What we know:
Elements: H1 27-33, H2 50-59, E1 75-78, E2 84-87, E3 121-124, E4 130-132, H3 139-147, E5 156-157, E6 164-165, H4 169-179, H5 221-236, H6 302-310, H7 337-350, H8 363-366, E7 382-388, E8 394-399, E9 405-410, E10 414-419, E11 425-430, H9 431-434, H10 436-441, E12 449-454, E13 463-467, E14 470-474, H11 482-493, E15 527-530, H12 534-538, E16 541-547, E17 553-556, E18 562-566, E19 575-579, E20 584-586, E21 598-601, E22 607-611, E23 616-620, E24 625-630, E25 637-642, E26 648-653, E27 658-662, E28 671-673, E29 680-685, E30 691-696, E31 700-707, E32 717-725, E33 735-740, E34 747-751, E35 755-760
Antiparallel strand pairs: 1-2, 3-4, 5-6, 7-35, 8-9, 9-10, 10-11, 12-13, 13-14, 14-16, 15-16, 17-18, 18-19, 19-20, 21-22, 22-23, 23-24, 25-26, 26-27, 27-28, 29-30, 30-31, 31-32, 33-34, 34-35
Pfam families: BOP1NT, WD40
Protein name: Ribosome biogenesis protein ERB1
Function: Component of the NOP7 complex, which is required for maturation of the 25S and 5.8S ribosomal RNAs and formation of the 60S ribosome.
Amino acid sequence: MPKRQLDNDVEPEEFPPLxxxxxxxxxxxxxxxxxxxxxxxxxxxxxLDSDELRELQEESDFNEQDLFSDDDEVRYIEGADxxxxxxxxxxxxxxxxxxxxxxEANTIGNIxxxxxxxxxxxxxxxxxxxxxxxxxxxxIDSLLETIDLPKGWTxxxxxxxxxxxxxxxxxxxxxxxxxxxxxxxxxxxxxxDTVEYFTSKQEVMPLTATPEPKxxxxxxxxxxxxxxxxxxxxxxxxLVLKDKKDHNVDDDGQMKLSSKLYDVWENEESKPENSMHxxxxxxxxxxxxxxxxxxxxxxxxxxxxxxxxAMDPSERETDFMPQKFGxxxxxxxxxxxxxxxxxxxxxxxxxxxxxxSKLNIDPDSLIPELPSPQxxxxxxxxxxxxxxxxxxxxxxxxxxxxxxxxxxxxxxxSVRVWEALTGRELWRLDIIKADxxxxxxxxxxxxxIDAVVxxxxxxxxxxxxxxxxxxxxxxxxxxxxGHVENTGLETMERxxxxxxxxxxxxxxxNVDDDGxxxxxxxxxxxxxxTKPGPQLAAKGCGVVVRCTKRVKKLDWHSKGDYFVTVxxxxxxxAVLVHQMSKHTSQxxxxxxxxxxxxxxxxxxxxxxxxxxxxxxxxxxxxxxxxVKRLQPGAKWLSSFDxxxxxxxxxxxxxxxxxxxxxxxxxxxxxxxxxxxxxxxRDVKYHPRLPxxxxxxxxxxxxxxxxxxxxxxxxxxLLVPLKILKGHKISSSLGVLQVAWHPREAWLFSAGGDxxxxxxxx
Length: 761
């Protein structure tokens, strides 16, 4: 097919094209203008005669006229042989058929378009003409084009032409259907009915009724003859069978490489498992007691069965009772099978899972390096003396500053003074019965001795006793020499000169304008200081302080002039500070924050420690401000004690904990000890040695070593030393109070079994 114009030989002006005139022209004029064209019948230079040429033309389907249409303009030029040559217009390279592929306008082939970046054109068409680069639209035109989308707009650029690549509606529909997962065209019905070609018609009669021939059931005689012939040849040796060759072994007897075993998963890439997936833990395997024929030691006797049936299902160790059967066929169905499966499904579905990384830590490295208890002696290890005499529980006890005497108070209402080394009773007073004021007021039927504390000065010999609503200050008669008794009584009697019977007087307001004395202004009375009755005075009692509520705790200041009492039921006046030299009592707080459990003075600073149920507050009495609020971390505090240096506090609680709080380090516990199995009743520091102890209702006393360093960078050293056992539990009460010897490593304890004990080294 010609692809270019044939007008390069002769200029087109020499032979103007022949055009057909209108019908009005005469045929003669037309004939005169038409130049004769050589006939195909004439001889040509091809060497073929006319008959052969005619046969070739008849056999060939090619017709030159098919390449051109009737409307094409034809002109003639003179050929090289002097004959006229028709010149027709160039053939359009583009196909008009819809079924053929559209030719590309840019025919650069595999040459990248980037090679034409420096040229004004981007390639060449099929005629060799340059394909110019389209004009680039401005930013505003591009913006408007994205807003007003033209028909078939895709936003893509044709890399061959540089223009916009638009799609027709049919192409867009095709893309939409493919993305939606549909078939590309609607001409195909994917759900058309199935045509059953072979089973659509049921055949009643057989296709052929010819009976089977007999030869199909009788062995072939011809084949039997051939087989016998082969057997005879094998027996005679004329036919030698070859050994079965192993295709996996080569001629040298070696295993072929292709037949060797190989790892199927050699090239398999490991896929990272889902990090969020945590497999469920496996069920616990059954034990011997779940067997249908368990050993006799796993079976329950009648008493154990009754105990197991009486227990709540949530408290039982197992959900079943071990049973024994003679054989497996006698085992009935398991009644809890469905319930166990249901609970297992609930655990798999609802129970949260967590992955815990196992740490390979040497257990010995977690244990702190503590010194041996043998190197920390002395500390109490044995019971040396037992003080017996009280008919009820021994609630409280106190050791004289000299260490020679021990005072105890019990629920029987008696106060007793013992000789510490021998356990001999030196003095006794039924103080509640001896007080006639209680008989006049009616008293309380459950009054008992709640606190006994010796005065910190050795030369006074004063013993303070808290019984019911009263505080008794006395010097036990016959225990000390005359000088000590006189000193103690004189110390208590000095305050009568300042006693104002609940009133205060000021010099500037006691005199009126007429010069006459006025009555002192009344103030609120928290306690009343009175003189004892004759029975109490005969026993050495000097002063009785009448309070409004029961006194639970009592503690002396180190200088011996002040003592603090705790009245938990008194509300805002639960803490009272009493001055013995002036016989006055005052409440340092306007309101109480919680139920007060205990109160103590600082060893040498003007600070007051007040313990509530959960906190220990430290108040500065001189500045009248709150210094710290310690948080021991217990639910209900029972007692506390302050270290002789005043920087550390230990607290015991009813939830079986003993906490050590370092006030220089933090307000929260530095160490929490859980060595007791029941409530902790009392904790005490030794006044001189690095020891402290804790007493509990489990009838045990824990002795611990504590070293407080001068270097603030070092933490206190706590070492458990000894567990003292000797008291008995009575009515769920064990050891109620403890007290250290002032100098020796001896410990005194009061128990609920009605005895007091001395523990020595």
